[in-house]
Design a protein that fits this description.
The protein has 384 residues and is α+β, with helices and mostly antiparallel strands. Helix content is 65%, strand content 9%. A hairpin with a 2-residue loop joins strand 4 and strand 5.
């Protein structure tokens, strides 16, 4: 009974419902953009939903048996989906290809100009193939690996996957099942089912689009809390959380404490602005010397720390020594004066005589103290 009720729904009713839903999401996305004008993807999503809302509205009023009217509305449909693809590329900071819009428009319009020579089924199937390919491109964007943890991307992928299968089913119908009886837009039960799937897709994709942006916002806020605003390295809180992720006695990492020598003299002699420059330059050097898998943080005024996973004492010492030499060779000019920096460093392994986080930190601190006590501008290791 329920299935029969669904199949008896008038397609025009679903066209109107989908048009209203898309229009509502277009307004929602535009309102979000007004608060986040640096996020271009909200404009892409707004434009996509506005175009698609117009498509479903036009479907109600046009003569769906007229080839050129169908060409126009299908061109808009393909354009709307293309804008959604570009919205996702913008969201993931990937290059957008504006010319893609022109290409898909030409591809969808071209078969209609050949309508005197090809069957309606060929044209209808070709349009749905283009739509299916666009959906596949959208899913590909969602599947591309990146460093962000965005669970909603999987819900968004499912929402697009379902509607993509609906387009693929239309291709099978047009080219394999009933190619001889196909009209420009067949008003059959499959159209009703497809429009219902689109209705679900509109709500799901809109909700997940907002959700995925919210998840990124939360992640960015968390990063701001864990970052030092001056050097953009991690801060002490991030260091404590990262250290807690490692087992203190499994020997899986090395710890290096680094401190700029006589930093107060730089502030006193050249001013705090010069001191800030010195901290930034030192941070940049550490990011260049250490590996991407290493954790680097500024945990005090002029004190830095590095956690090196899967690293031997010899390797850790070499990294610390490379950082020391790079800082020593990185003099810079400030207000006509040459400012020179040196650093001292203390190195220890997780298993170097300690079984707790405080022991490991203390061992590295003792090594750093030894480096400073032995003349500074040097690296010392903690020996058991």
């Amino acid at each position: 009974m329920l299935i029969q009720y669904i199949l008896d729904i008038e397609p025009n009713t679903l066209f109107v419902v989908n048009a209203i839903s898309l229009g509502a999401f277009a307004i929602a996305f535009f309102c979000i953009w007004l608060k986040q004008r640096d996020k271009a993807y909200w404009l892409y999503w707004t434009a996509a939903n506005f175009v698609l809302s117009s498509v479903f509205t036009i479907f109600v009023v046009i003569d769906r048996s007229q080839i050129m009217q169908m060409a126009f509305v299908n061109a808009l449909l393909v354009l709307g989906v293309a804008l959604r693809w570009q919205a996702l590329r913008s969201f993931f900071y990937r290059k957008n290809y504006v010319e893609f819009n022109l290409i898909v428009l030409l591809l969808v319009i071209a078969p209609y100009f050949l309508s005197s020579y090809v069957k309606h089924s060929v044209i209808f199937g070709a349009v749905n193939v283009i739509l299916f390919v666009e959906i596949a491109l959208i899913i590909r964007e969602l599947l591309k690996p990146n460093k962000e943890v965005l669970p909603s991307r999987w819900g968004l992928m499912v929402a697009y996957g379902i509607v993509g299968l609906a387009f693929l089913l239309r291709v099978v119908q047009a080219w394999l099942i009933s190619p001889d009886t196909m009209t420009p837009l067949p008003l059959d039960h499959l159209l009703t089912v497809q429009l219902l799937i689109v209705s679900i897709h509109i709500v799901a994709s809109g909700a997940f689009a907002i959700s995925i942006a919210y998840e990124r916002g939360i992640s960015e806020l968390r990063q701001m809390v864990l970052r030092d605003p001056l050097t953009e390295l991690y801060n002490r809180r991030a260091y404590e959380l990262t250290l807690a992720e490692h087992k203190p006695d499994d020997g899986s990492f090395a710890l290096i404490l680094l401190d700029i020598d006589h930093f107060k003299r730089i502030n006193d002699a050249f001013g705090h602005a010069a001191g800030d420059i010195a901290l930034k330059r030192c941070a940049n050097i550490l990011m260049q010397v250490f590996r991407k898998t290493d954790f680097i943080a500024r945990i005090g005024g002029e004190e830095f720390v590095a956690i090196l996973p899967e690293t031997t004492m010899k390797e850790a010492y070499e990294f610390a020594e490379a950082a020391r030499k790079a800082v020593e060779n990185d003099a810079f000019e400030y207000n006509g004066n040459i400012v020179r920096l040196t650093i001292s460093a203390g190195v220890c392994l997780a298993t170097a005589g300690g079984s707790s986080f405080s022991d490991i930190t203390q061992n590295a601190d003792l090594s750093l103290y030894s480096a400073k006590n032995n003349g500074r501008n040097r690296v010392e290791i903690f020996a058991v």
